[in-house]
Amino acid sequence: MKKATRVILMGMFLSLTFANKVNASEVTIPEPNDSFYVLDSADLLTPETEQLILDYNTNLSIKEEKPQIVVVTVPTTGTMSIEEYSTETFEKWEIGNEDYDNGVLLVVTADGHERLEIGYGLEGAIPDSLASSYLSDNASFFDSQQYNEGV
Question: Which residues of 32-45 are buried (b: 16+ CB within 10 A; e: fewer)?
Answer without folding.
Answer: beeeebbbbebebb
